Amino acid sequence: MRPFELTAPQTLDDALAAPGMFLAGGTTLIDLMKLDVLTPPQVQDIDALPLRGIDTTDGLRIGALERMSDLAAHPGVPAVITRALLQSASQQLRNMATIGGNLLQRTRCGYFRDVTSPCNRREPGSGCPAITGSNRMHAVLGTSDSCVATHASDLAVALVALDTRVRLTGRDGERTVALADLYRTPGVTPEVEHDLRPGELITEVLVPPLGDGVRSTYVKVRDRQSYEFALCSAAVTVRVRDGRVSDARIAVGGVATVPWRLPSVEAALRGAPATPESFEAAAATAADGARPLSGNGFKVPLVRRTVVRALLEATQGDRT
C-alpha cells in the first residue's frame, strides 16, 4: 500500500469540500489499495457523518452508512433484501460494510485486481484478457468488446428489483435517481462504472412500499454456500390473486455487468397462472441478448432456471 493522507470530516459539508476518495466500511477500498489497484493520495474517513438510520414508516429509508448486518436484522425489511444481505458476505464483513459502499463496490474480476494484467476498467485502452482468457465467472449480459466483468453486489440486485431510488449529495446540491440508472454498462468506456459526479456521495437509499399481498425472495447460485460470489442470482417480488400473477418484478445478478432487470419476463408473467409451467414459459426470455464466452455458456440456461426457482420459492414459500 502506498502512502496517503487520511482525514476524518465531521460534517457532510466538510466531506464534500475536501479532496480525496471516501472511505466508509473499507471492505472494498482498503483491499484495492493494498493491491495497488487504487492509489489515492488523499482518503476521507466518513464514518462519523450523520448518514445512518432505518425508517420503515412508508416503504424503507436507509442511511448510506448503515451497516449491512444492522439492515439485515431490522424488522420490517422485505425478505428479498434480508436474504441478499445474509448471502452476500460473512458476518464479520457485514458488521463492517456499509449500504452505500456495498452499492458502489468494484468488480471482483481477477484481471481488474491484478495490476500486472491489462484491464480496460483499471487502465483504459489496455485490453480485456477475460474475453479470450479465464471467464467462467464473467458476464453474458450487458457486455461489450471492452469489458465482461460482472457487478459484485447482491444487495444492488434486490434493490433494483424493488425500483429503489438513491439520494445523492454533492457540491452542487442534492438529486435523486433510480438505482438502476446509476449504473452504466461498459460500452467503450468501462472505466466509467456509474453516474456519480466528482465528489458526490450516496446519502440515502429509498425503497418504495411493496404493497399488499406481495411476496419476495432472493435466490443465489454459487460454487459453495459460505461467502462466495454469485454464478447467478435472482431477486423476485410477486403478487398472486385468484391463482394468477397480478404483478412481478425481477432482477438478476452474477450474469451481467450491472444489476439486470428482466422486463420481458415480468410482462409475460402478468396475468399468467402461478404455476411452474407458466414460470418456465415466462423465463424463456431471461437470457435474451446474452453473449456467452468460452467458459461461461452455462450461465444462459442457469439464469432461466434461477428465475423459475425464485418464482416458485416466492409463491409457494413463506417469503414477505
Automatic annotation (TrEMBL):
EC number(s) stated in the UniProt entry for this protein: 1.3.7.9
Enzyme class: oxidoreductase
Family matches, as SUPFAM superfamilies: CO dehydrogenase flavoprotein C-terminal domain-like, FAD-binding/transporter-associated domain-like
Keywords in alphabetical order: Oxidoreductase
Pfam families to which the protein is assigned, alphabetical: CO_deh_flav_C, FAD_binding_5
One of the record's GO molecular function terms: oxidoreductase activity
The FAD-binding PCMH-type domain, residue ranges: 1-212
Protein name: 4-hydroxybenzoyl-CoA reductase subunit beta
Organism: Pseudonocardia autotrophica
